[in-house]
From TrEMBL:
Protein name (Swiss-Prot/TrEMBL): NADH dehydrogenase FAD-containing subunit
Species the sequence originates in: Natrinema soli
């Protein structure tokens, strides 16, 4: 199953974080889609840390497993585990507990994604950059 209405609303969800033009990201995404049944699979934008991509994020409720530099076979296995009701933590590079309705990338306590603050780039790697539903409406009206 692929998620066509936004990355943040469905659970369980597999997110594939990679540059839009990444062939490897496309292969990882396709493999996860092939295995997923009721699990949403979403292609998100990059996190800004190329060395981690394609990054697979397996989320169910308020728990997300991060698997760095995933291969298509790994993505297929992760989707299968999530499909069976288990967040795949055994091969995860990081696991983060978070609010189930979080709209930004949950930040691991250690590793490359733990560095700095992600105020502006918070949604990077978590939402589909081409999906308007994933972004809250902002007004351009200003008062003087």
């Amino acid at each position: 199953m692929t998620d066509v209405t936004g990355a943040g609303s469905e659970s369980p969800t597999i997110r594939i974080s990679a540059a839009v033009s990444s062939d490897r990201g496309d292969r990882v995404y396709d493999a996860a889609c092939d295995e997923a049944g009721s699990v949403s699979v979403v292609r998100t934008g990059p996190t800004g840390v190329d060395a981690l991509e394609p990054l697979v994020l397996a989320t169910d409720g308020g728990r997300t497993a991060f698997v760095y530099s995933s291969s298509p076979s790994t993505a297929r296995e992760l989707a299968g585990e999530l499909e069976s009701g288990t967040v795949p933590t055994t091969r995860a590079d990081a696991v983060v507990e978070h609010d189930p309705d979080v709209s930004s990338l949950p930040v691991p306590e250690t590793g490359p994604l733990s560095v700095g603050r992600r105020h502006v780039l918070g949604p990077c790697g978590w939402v589909d950059p081409l999906e308007p539903v994933d972004y809250p409406l902002r007004s351009s009206d200003r008062t003087a």
